[in-house]
Amino acid sequence: MKTHILVKVKFFKNALKLTIISALTVGVIYFVALPITLAALMPDDIRLSNEEVGQHQSISPNKFVKTDYDREIGVDDNNRTWIDLKLFGLIKIKRVMVDVLPFDSVYAGGMPIGFSAKTDGVVVLRDGKGYKRGDVITNLDSATITSVKDLERHLGAKRLGIWVKDDVNGVGTLTYINPENNNFAALGHKVVDFETGASVNVRSGDIYSCNVLSVEKSDTKTVGSYQSTLAKSRGSQGSILSSNTHGVFGCLNDDGLVFKTCKKNCYPVASRYSVKPGKAKILTALNGKDIREYDIEIIKARYQKTEADKGIILRITDKELLATAGGIIHGMSGSPIIQNGHIVGALTHVIQGDVTRGFGIYIDFVMP
Asked: For the segment 226-283, what is each residue's pLDDT rounded down to a tens digit?
């Protein structure tokens, strides 16, 4: 009997020791290893607004990692400052450089705009000679191809036997205008040629206001769209200078309808570190003329180490917008997202199968 009790006591001692070791291991991982790893994986440099720097905006990836702004270090001549990430606010893990955003506030967009632009490369219009409809040719036999003329000049007497084009027309929504120089950003994603479905970059072109004839509502099976025409009779509203995966960029004329309409809505800028799940607004003009605020809910603000789209997951909650458009429609891409009185992003995509939900891109990703 005595031996049995000793064995039992020894078993409980070993079990208690194992429990304590396991708890300590879990504690070290949860309170130390995980926070240190997440902080170490933070980018070496980030972008914040002047307001966020002044308010010591937290960039912490974990609740046990504190954001420490060195009060002795201000913004330098290159518009930069530095933040230390510290475990429990005591142990320095990493220093992050902050590149202050180039402007503090912008004229928010929301106006649907049409564009007529030249593509960077040529778009194949139908299958043939090893190419498929929607292919974009930017190089041929090591030669750079930017236009149909480039292709013809390079081929000489040869012919590929395919139909190509180097222009694209489309509709999107203006995101913001820089008040200092009238430079704008629109769309929030790469330009898509609706004739072929090709994703293209554009190198030049013109911006026009849109005549919105009607709105084709979205439903569970299809994504709706603006039924519109380019209002070329009003003249060019500005010029396209470039594009990339985050949208179309250029400069607006200050005497144009688009600029005059958007100039009425000025908002301070906030980076992705200020975006939180909860209530927000989207700015858009369903009739092509009157920019309105519509209620949305930000479901999730994804952490993104590098520039990418789909960081914001949102849901349309506004009854009027749902009644008029059914949710998100083609042409709304680029509509500004407003939270806590700041412009924080732009709508980019609709979620197929649930047109009330979509994605957005953080506004600091679409700024120069």
From this structure: 999 999 999 999 999 999 999 999 999 999 999 999 999 999 999 999 999 999 999 9
Stretch (H or E) spanning 13: helix 2-28
Element spanning 151, H or E: helix 148-155
Verify that 95 and 161 share a domain, yes or no.
Answer: no
- Residue 348 CB: number of other CB atoms within 10 A? 27
Q: Are residues 198 and 130 in the same domain?
A: yes
- pTM higher than 0.85: yes
Q: Among the three residues 100, 133, 162, which one is the final residue of a domain in this structure?
A: 100
- Of residues 28, 96, 44, 29, the one with CA closest to residue 66: 96
One domain for residues 93 and 109: no
Tell me the two tokens of residue 236.
Answer: 């060019």
Helix locations, 29-71, DSSP H: 34-40, 50-54
Domain ends where: 36, 69, 100? 100
Which of 45, 25, 30 shows the shortest CA–CA distance to 87? Answer: 30
Residue 171's domain comprises: 104-368
- Look up the CATH number of the domain holding residue 233: 2.40.10.10
> Are β-strands 292-301 and 183-186 bridged in parallel, bridged antiparallel, or unpaired?
unpaired
Backbone angles phi, psi at 32, to 5 degrees: -125, -60
Count how many Cα atoms sit within 13 Å of the Cα of residue 148 in the half-sphere of its side chain.
Answer: 11
CA-wise closest residue to 264 among 134, 136, 108: 108
